[in-house]
């Protein structure tokens, strides 16, 4: 995972039994009440509960399965593809995903959850809240479920991060044969989000997981940002 | 992760201290000698050692950093994008990736590793070998490191699988509010490959990891195939 010593074992721990999250819920407090965190843990929180806690939820017509499409259009700055009801767009935050991240699952009937206004800031708030409350230095990732071209199915990826290196830059490191590595940037937070999804599931109501045992060097105190560091600028992108 | 009971904790275990892999190496034997496997484990093996063991390695001019491009062109059935030295193509196996999966890292100078001829078959051989040798029922994933549009950095994904559900089909399952899930297919093997990469690293020489604690229901005895079940057919793909 990092360029140094062989890594040790990793644990991916579901945080179960959390109460219902509503507007104003203190997510940091919720997590600290539910699980004993250690320095170096990375806490992965799904977008859905972050959006609910932040009130990023809007009313839709429960009898019209397409009524949220108005919100999708509004949240998009650029439509990349349309097919039937599916819209792949770039959101105003810069994410390229289906339906601008607006979705109807795991929210009350008649409502749609939007992406958080600034999911890096959401992650920072939770990180700072955990530090203040439990006195531990953790990383926080806000995760969401995105599709991708060329491969079927969805995986969880990071849409916000705090306290953890977003991308591992391996430039200058060498492989086992001493050759400089060609692949120089690993999307660390996306791999952590994917690992966390394995214990979360889509229907089991586990919106938080803890990843324990990462190289302590991936924890950072300085700024971390999915939007700045992980989203590929349009001009660099061969598929936009 | 599955649609049933809340999942338990997952462990991601690096398999360290493996000897050098060369043409003809029995990977199943190597893994069984290095780690005690349990029923239900998923063993993730990187493409590089699979290709080496299968002899999917070709000579290139060590003084010409572009000499492997001839192999890249030959392994490609369709070029999607070119920029400078970078080629994004569809390989003859159906993968869309950079440089047709041909790469020069973690192989001897003067050689390039190609993708395995049939990475699902590679996974099956290792799975069967482990079953024969250790008597345990495991899943096997062959992983590789791919980039993706829109987001910087690479993540590990599955290019072959045996004994494990490739895609979790959640159709007919409901969310915590009883609403039928809109996102119905989770690319399980890609998430497992990403989790495994977190303990492997690119330069630490850990080519195998074990993921322990997955829902036993994701292990399957019947056929599993990344190429058949996870690769999106060109006609379905909005970005090809």
Description of the molecule:
The first copy, chain A, starts with 9 loop residues before the first strand and ends in an 11-residue tail after the last helix. Chain A folds into 2 domains: 11-54 and 116-232, 2-Layer Sandwich (60s Ribosomal Protein L30, Chain: A); 57-114, Alpha-Beta Complex (CofE-like fold), CATH 3.90.1660. Chain A contains 6 helices and 12 strands. In chain A, helix 1 crosses helix 4. The model of chain A has no long low-confidence stretch (mean pLDDT 91). In chain A, 23% of the residues lie in helices and 25% in strands. The longest helix of chain A is centred in the middle third of the chain and has 16 residues, at 119-134. Chain A has a 5-stranded mixed sheet with strand order 1-12-2-8-9. A 3-stranded antiparallel sheet of chain A has the order 4-5-6. The first copy, chain A, has a two-stranded antiparallel sheet with strand order 3-7. Chain A is α+β, with helices and mostly antiparallel strands. The interface between A and B is large, with 80 and 80 residues. Strand 1 (10-15) of chain A pairs antiparallel with strand 1 (10-15) of chain B.
